[in-house]
Amino acid sequence: MSEDTITATAPGAEAPAHGIGASLPSAECRAKTEGTFPYASDLWAEGLLWAAVLRSPYAHARIVSIDTSHALQMPGVHAVVTHEDVPGDALHGRRTPDRPVFASEVVRHHGEPIAAVAADHPDTARMAAAAVIVEYEVLEPVTDPEKAFEAEPLHPDGNLIRHIPLRHGDPEAVGELVVEGLYRIGRQDPAPIGAEAGLAVPRPDGGVELYVASTDPHADRDRAAACYGLAADQVKVVVTGVPGATADREDASFQLPLGLLALRTGCPVKLTATREESFLGHAHRHPTLLRYRHHADAEGRLVKVEAQILLDAGAYADTSSEALAAAVSFACGPYIVPNAFIEGWAVRTNNPPSGHVRGEGAMQVCAAYEAQMDKIAKKLGIDPAELRLRNAMATGDIMPTGQTVTCPAPVAELLAAVRDFPLPELPKDTPEDEWLLPGGPEGAGEPAAVRRGVGYGLGMVQLLGAEGADEVSTATVKVHDGVATVICAAVETGQGFTTLARQIVQETLGIEDVRVAPVDTDQPPAGPSCRGRHTWVSGGAVERAAKMVRTQLLQPLAHTFGMSTELLQIADGKITSYDGVLSTTVTEALDGKELWATAQCRPHPTEPLDEAGQGDAFVGMAFCAIRAVVDVDIEIGSVRVVELAVAQDVGRVLNPAQLRTRIEAGVTQGVGAALTENLRTPRGIVRHPDLTGYALPTALDAPDIRIVKLVEERDVVAPFGAKAAGAVPVVTSPAAIASAVRAATGRPVNRLPIRPQAAVAQ
Fold first, then answer.
1. DSSP state, 12?
2. Strand pairing partners for 306?
3. What Cα–Cα distance (Å) separates residue 407 from each residue in 377, 394, 446, 469, 618?
4. Which residues contact residue 164 at a Cβ distance below 8 angstroms, ignoring those fewer than 6 apart?
5. Is the separation of the CB atoms in 647 and 414 below 8 Å?
6. Runs of H (alpha helix) within 381-425
7. How far is CA 456 from the centre of its chain?
8. 68, 134, 388, 717: which is deepest, by most CB within 10 A?
């Protein structure tokens, strides 16, 4: 980030050393940068066996027979398990139990697990897995989601996962201007840092412990227990070091075979997936087909939006229902739309499974509705930013779902901030600046073929779950010998929860030494690490528990001096009264006592969308505006993102450095979705499942990111008034980049990632 980036600390103000508002570094940052942080792949146990999984080479096939005899006869092989060896539920799923632990009769996607092997060496395990003989009857795969409606059912539950018809306003309304568009969004892989790994250890009571980098340990425990035919208390999930997550970190196709093999062999079993297995196993962003028709009046104000949204869920449902709800609900964007008629479908195909990735559903529709806004602006000859300002949503407006926007929605303020921020200078024609040309030195054609474009994107995402999801978290705060300990099953995936928990306790109790206990399923559940949940629900639970401990700490002092605890304050490790009569330290007040409290945080309830797509489905929303500046070689279609100016609605800045990092990371992930990341699956087969064939953006691809404004308008229903910050930049930046490429080339740009031929000027 550049030096002129605006930070959350006002000029001349001194940032606090700890507590809320401090740029407190992560407790794990030193170990991670030095390479000493223990990840799941570093685990070891006495008598360890190694696991390998046999996966289908086909996208769609009928399994005629499975012969494991050759694998079992290999020296060093201790067990081979297939669908016949699953003692409990044979199906699992994050929301819908429709996915087999091992394929039994039919293979529905490339890479689906068929069998798993445990052996005394990882190479032996892989060779034994390859020695399992599977006879297939190859079937024609259904890979086009449009054809899934008429195709033979791929699953007993059918091909249609969910259909949402949204009806809002007058269907007969028309505008003086009508623009249409067809848009396609590709399959983005979350590409987690470090491939999946885990260790299963059998217990003397017949249970098993799973050491995995889970992002939702209690849900993973319950799925595993059901699969193993065990009670939930016989399975324990211990969260090991999570090496970063931009989606559901661990896939059950890695976890479940581990426990089965450990229970079968009576030995600890470890699995470290290859990068190829990681690409084949975990869920990806939903590829999406979108058809839009916008109606506007002569001034550019929106009259009606009509859209059809088709999500390719892949072989299994996973989180597709929730992604579709977000896509349909946010299909019109952060704009005032009096009439909206949206049809949304999520369907099964023989493509790899799709699931939770930052901003699922919202990112796809953002690219489409922003393209439509550019079309309206071009047709009317209106500045694209001005057109958006005329339609910008604000607090109190009604969404197409009928829900009133009660949270802060400073959309116009965000857009004005990025529009008015100074544009970057044009590169000079010198040898030193060749890196600034699209493609780098010798990567572009003639410098005269380079055109600069400026575009805008406005995005919105939901906070927490939706449609009646019970978003609850529990936390315990203990204080003893001057040290505070936070016990909460909220998994630190890189979003900064452990740092935030320390800051909350420091702020509330005045204790600087705060530690966060490791996460396992012996603790009360806190829910999944997605959509910024833990900033809200787990942070809220920690705050409530810390305030209860604060009351326990202050009550004896207040009683002694004949005053209420509200008249006492804690700051910098000292307790003082409003009148200065009482002044002591927190350590003296504790006097060796151990204090603790447990609390829950549960936001106000939501409701499912009804048969017309109406309902108060969301707890809250966050908004972002981005102005993109790109240089495009209009002869060969190469694109360089010069700068992304970001203004974001954050509610309250809790950790300035951490917040800026989250925004930068989200924007950069969006750059990948816009320009490079597309997991290609011809006929359902994943091509190039590695980080050579799958082009993640590198440091050379990352643009200058200017955070020009952070709007701190606190959401009164959220703890601390803060909003999650990681997802909405991912949603917004691809749309802004596509808008800028349109401005540079005059081409429509209706597909993400942007292909070179789409960036060649006509």
1. T
2. 293, 341
3. 29, 9, 50, 19, 11
4. 324, 325, 328, 342, 343, 344, 345, 609, 613
5. yes
6. 384-391, 411-420
7. 23
8. 388
Q: Which two tokens stand for residue 702?
A: 């990352």
Query: H or E element: which one contains 102?
Result: none
State the Cα–Cα distance between residues 447 and 437, nearest whole angstrom. Answer: 8
Q: What number of other Cβ atoms are within 10 A of residue 717's Cβ? A: 13
CA–CA gap between residue 53 and residue 196 (Å, rounded): 13
DSSP 62: E
Residue 234 CB: number of other CB atoms within 10 A? 17
User: Quick one: CA dihedral 528, 529, 533, 537, positive or negative?
Assistant: positive
Strand partners, 644: 628, 705
Is 251:323 a contact under the CB 8 Å cutoff? Answer: no
Pair of tokens at residue 583: 């002044």
Question: What does the block give as tokens for 533?
Answer: 């949940």
What are the distances in angstroms from CA 482 to CA 25, 505, 506, 586, 588? 21, 12, 12, 8, 10
> What is the rounded CA–CA span in Å between residue 337 and residue 307?
13
Q: Write out the two tokens for 629.
A: 């500046």
Mean pLDDT by 10 residues, the chain (762 residues): 40 60 82 82 92 97 97 97 96 90 96 97 97 98 97 96 98 97 95 84 96 91 95 94 69 87 97 90 94 97 98 95 97 98 98 92 97 98 97 97 96 98 80 66 73 96 88 94 92 86 91 92 90 87 94 88 83 81 84 91 93 95 97 91 96 92 93 95 93 87 94 89 90 98 95 91 72
Residue 86's H or E segment, with its range, is none
Burial class (CB in 10 A: 0-12, 13-18, 19+), 494: buried
Q: Is the dihedral of CA 714, 715, 716, 722 positive or negative?
A: negative
- The amino acid that residue 14 corresponds to is E
User: Which residues are 577's β-sheet partners?
Assistant: 568
Structure pTM? Answer: 0.94
